[in-house]
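step 4 of 6: structure.
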Amino acid sequence: MDPATRLLALQNPDGGWGYRGGNSWTEPTACALLALEDQPQAAGAAARARAWLQRLQRPDGGWAPHPAVEQSTWVTALVVLLGMDAARQGRAIQWLLERTGEDTTLLNRVRRLLLGIRSEYSQEPPAWPWFPGTAAWVPPTAMSVLALRKVHKQQPDSRLQQRIEQARQFLFTRMCQDGGWNHGSSRALGFQIGSYPETTGLALLALHGVEQARLARSLALAERYLQECRSQEGLSWLQLGLLAHGRRPAAPEGIPERNPLETALRMLAAKAAGGRNVFLE
Amino acid sequence: MALLKRRHWIAGSLAALTGCSRDPRAEPSAVSIARAAHYDGQLFDLIRRLLIEQGLDVRGKRVVLKPNLVEFDPGTTINTHPLVVHAALEAFRSLGAAEVRIAEGPGHRRNTLELAEAAGYFKTIPNFEGLFTDLNLDDISPVRLAKPFARLESLYLPKTALGCDLLVSLPKMKTHHWVAATLSMKNLFGLVPGSVYGWPKNILHWAGIHQCIADLHTLFPRAFAIVDGITGMEGNGPIQGTPKFAGVIVAGRDPVAVDATCCRIMRIDPERVHYLQLAARRGGLSEAAARQTGEPIASVQVPFELIPQFRTLRLGPG
């Protein structure tokens, strides 16, 4: 069975996809839709998925990760990548622009200064949290960069450009000593912390267009991870990240897809290898 | 934070769903300490004996084992040893549990199964993938905290943990660079889903780590605890510390009493660990507040090295 057919077979009656069966969630649904939208046999499924996502947009313009969650979160960036009608898109972008990690708000900078709290990352630029009211981390920041870049390419806007540049600086400040990225904690209590394959691939994807000399170690590490990684999710992000920098990585065969999200990501990586990287269009 | 308006679980109702029949505050909590020198096949008999000693009736119950899976580094001892998890799985089955599942939602890595494979779970536990639920990706229900210690009024939690009859916290005995010691109560951070809150579960840090540990304990007050203290971790735990042999398994129905006992074994003063202070009820955290069975604490005490900011928590001479 080809990946598109496998993915279609896992769609819920409400139009969305779950992480492992079960209720529909925004992240696997958005990824499945990105993977399926250009597949002729998926037109009906894609329309149902898009309708499910549209119903989930919250009054503040963002998206919650799950219908039961009464809070917009980082998944808003993933939905922006899909492209919505102008009104929906505008509200979503506004929601993203209004979010920063709580650690870089003026209030918290002043608080840290007054209390003498030292931070490993006290001077870094604003970036995005997973969940409002918390610190900024690498994956939601990388995904927000991809979303805003896509919109900025269609409708150039200095506000978007500024946040993209700041977020890319943030990614560099959070790079681990080995050249890769983990969730965003590269140092703690003076100790260096190692990177992960999936976050390294995603960060490289978000750093598309950065001069390769700055990323030489990162790209070499990603190529090494590609041979060692045992998860399809990790392999797919590594391929997407390497392809974004002109590398043609050959991923190992036989790594199972364990859920719809992994199937969708594998399709997106294959699509990018074929010349269409939907995250960078 | 999200203020729930509907479809929420009330904390008090969870107590009725999540455990044993006894109120842990009614009398001194029994805490069992057993020596275990190695990770080997004898752990099944040892854990089964501890469950019987604790009077746990799991016949017909749905049990969820929650180990501590964080990161994998072959040079150290971050995670609950898979042989302890396997022994617990078989022990609960042998005592008549209707279903025993293993569930965890790691705080750093999204690829939980890859992490479990690296940590030896697939190799050690037959049909591990079929028995396992990734709590980061599980379906969720909103739960309201009636009188929270932290500033969160509600949490979204995985249905696998909310719906079981007995939640068993199976942590590694470790020091922790923010809260001094991570044991059965701190291990419940792994119930908080990354699919909602991200990786790490940073909302718990911003709301107050000690307070959130106490709040999660409020939601699962009768979680059973089995602590892997054979080889724990000292120093800059929970990830970058150093392996420390303590040679014990500690178990009991009252996570506060179990964690306080583990602190004493590690020569940390539990009465100065803030989350234990918050969670302690009648009887407090004194050694007399728990009824120790098996090995006396003094006979298994081994000082775990503490990072400088926690050295004032060192338990004085007995």
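step 5 of 6: annotate
 - Residues 32 and 189 of chain B are 24 Å apart (CA to CA).
 - The longest strand of chain B covers residues 224-234.
step 6 of 6: archive
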